[in-house]
Amino acid sequence: MKWPRWVGSPLRAVHVGFGVVLFGLGIWSACSSNNTDVFPPAPATDYEVWVSDQAHTQGITAGTPTGTHGGHILVYDGVDLEKTPPVDNPRIVDATADLFPTADVTTGGHVSRIHGILPSPDHVYMALNFVASGHLGIVHGQTKAPVCLFRTTETSTGRQNHMSFWTPDGRYLIVANQNGRIAERVDIVRNAQGQVVGFVFNAAASLDLVGGAGRILTQPVAVDVNPADEISCTVSGTVPDNQPTTTPTGALKQAAGIRPTNNLICPIAASNNRHAFATLGGGGMFVLDVTATPIAIVAEYDLSVVRAAGCGGVQSSEYIHLNTGTSAMGVSEFSIYRFTLNYPQAPAFNPPNQPPPVTVWEDPDNGKVAGVDLPAGTNRDAHAMVVVRNRLPGTARYLHQFDRVRNNVEVFRLAPPWNTLDGQYEGSYDLTTTGVCGQTLGAPMSNDPTPDLGEVSFGGNPQGDRIYVALRGPFPVTVAHAADGSCPGLGIITLSADRRSGELTTVFDTTVLNNGGTENRSDPHAAIVRAKTS
User: Fold this and answer.
1) Residue 93 pLDDT
2) Which of 11, 82, 122, 132 is the most buried (most CB within 10 A)?
3) What's the whole-model pTM score?
């Protein structure tokens, strides 16, 4: 029997000065999976945790020792996780063998590198995002049966699906075609009883974030994986080529010194079901009206206002909080911005950089390089964030901001005044203090728990007492400059009673061995909580 590394010691908070380093290319690279602080009501154990492991699980041979495609989804039952100690007994689903074995034939490529998973607002369906192959898979959450498989548009700069985000009303999935530099949309069709009867990749809604002739090379593809379920999976219309190279204000969409590289990272949907905050790999941001066809830019921000590589965002107290993290090896970056939700409906639009966001935290070492401007290993990477609420009614919410490089979590109180986080910094807790993160096969280091996407457990009033977080492996296949860790797997952070601190109390190891059995190539990227539904 396999026992987890678990400790039951009292919580310890480690407070450090905030003049050090962070990263965040995440999604929700972040990313956090719930973009508001509204959670489905559910008993404490009536949930499960899905973990996406980006490592290839298929095509592992002597010639291709780390594989060619596939990936694992590990599903942990909340009943097991809530036990003392928690029980490591996941259901393992292979993205190729169990879900999409014919993807190569039907879409022109195998599914590869499952980057993240997000539940529909009612938690019935799960959106699976494949960052290398550009696929979007739809899976039924309860049965784990595949429903649809889409492949995104190929442009002159590539094709990906970094992440996709549901609007809170469940009408749309907004797809971040990262290397394609294009925002795309899947429309969810329901019958008169509110049941989902179709997923439509609305090609006419796709917005090219670069524009110009010769950009669109291949149209999106849809596959109805299970025709017997009476849910159709189709493509509607075509993605138009030669879209405008300018925003509605007349500024270039992509240009040096403004928005130099419009790789779409995370289009995080707001609670109004209309706007998405689209972070860009090279810096800057667009606010999109995702209900327009095509999707429309209604506000634009340049590099002087929003730094590069942002993707971690949550909505709380009528604001969107976004982060930015490291964009290259050794570069230090830790910023948190607060944006209003007040933006126009297309075709109306705002002037550039209006309304200005509040830079609620900008680390003084941003842009410095470890080993050059900073001591080696002291850079930072703000990536992924979650909001938790004190269990006492009327008390504050707390923003927990992960740092993938320093392996810690910075905590801020979300309360007025909203123009700053000064005076609202609650301290930092270190994920290495318990020592439950060890060393896996082939890792050059130990006790290096590198946190990526995570989410708060359900239960309690209104949330549980822990954060489930994906811990990266020693051979990261995405963001290799910041995301290497020594204990790939599912980490459990037990929160303090007041939700202002925590500690890493459990690590459930994940394993995907290379052909020679000398390296554990497992590389979890996201841990997502799904409420069980009938």
Assistant:
1) 98
2) 132
3) 0.91
